[in-house]
Amino acid sequence: xxxxxxxxxxxxxxxxxxxxEETVRVIRMVTxxxxxxxxxxxxxxxxxxxxxxxxxxxxxxxxxxxDAGPGLTDMLIIAxxxxxxxxxxxxxxxxxxxxxxxxxAKGMPQQTFPEGSGVLKxxxxxxxxxxxxxxIASGGIMSDSTDDSMVPACDTVRQDSGxxxxxxxxxxxxxxxxxxxxxxxxxxxxxEPLAETKTAExxxxxxxxxxxxxxxxxxxxxxxxxxxxxxPGTPDFISGICVVRGEIISLIDLRVLxxxxxxxxxxxxxxxxxxxxxxxxxxxxxxxxxxxxxELDRISTENPHVPITTNKYVKGxxxxxxxxxxxxALFSDPxxxxxxx
Length: 341
Fold this sequence. Notes:
Elements: E1 2-11, E2 14-19, E3 23-28, E4 43-49, E5 52-58, H1 59-62, E6 75-81, E7 84-90, E8 92-101, E9 119-121, E10 127-129, H2 132-138, H3 161-166, H4 172-188, H5 195-198, E11 199-207, E12 210-215, E13 219-224, E14 238-244, E15 247-252, H6 254-257, E16 270-275, E17 280-285, E18 287-295, E19 314-318, E20 322-325, H7 327-332
Parallel strand pairs: 2-10, 5-7, 12-20, 15-17
Antiparallel strand pairs: 1-2, 1-8, 3-6, 4-5, 6-7, 9-10, 11-12, 11-18, 13-16, 14-15, 16-17, 19-20
């Protein structure tokens, strides 16, 4: 068995997952541009993402479910499939989880679906896509090649509560189409020259009943918390050290570093391993809540409800409120590293 970080999603009543390392970003549904007839069933058209044309893949079709029109609450997972990026159309995403997956003697996940499907089913019925290119090449999981516990034989028509809540007063479909078209026009605009400096991809995690974010650029991996060895004479915010892939790293307890008031029990069962290619250390977290994009110029440094914004290791608070850590301040502090000598 091996632990895999997976982005969870759903289509109809089917739950699926995709390796987090193959996920580029997640955006809200937009109106796809239809292609000429004659394409594969899963081909839902294309989108223009800041000047790049991406194929839209209907996960409903690949999982053998009935087609449904796009809804306001649907999502597009921008994922890597070989050398190209694709937009995977799903009903919803539901965060990130570490899930144990079986491995065979060749190091590839064991399959429970037909040869070349690129999908396996976990004990709890989760359909894990370990080979997206293989799944697409196979044409998907047809109803005659699955069992009832994997994909329901009769998929009921999706009821989008978001449609009624967000719909206009006159014509629901017209309103939905207008919103999706407006979103499509927005993401089709070229990115501003300095877009990279104004936005950042972040990993979100929870600690002591508050959500935090740290930029993806410095994250090497996320692992389960193993044995922690205390080291005498170190700062209070260092819980100890642990061994990760043969390397000894220090573990940082943000509750102490940020002077977070104790609000009950915490799990601290995840380690977010950070590196700048020179220094490497881990941050303890309760659990990972997802990935996303934040606008750096909208981070507030003053929030009366989040007093830790005055801490030098905190960049500020984004919408949520989401506490954004300052990775530069973390790496510039020499006390983060324990002298192995």
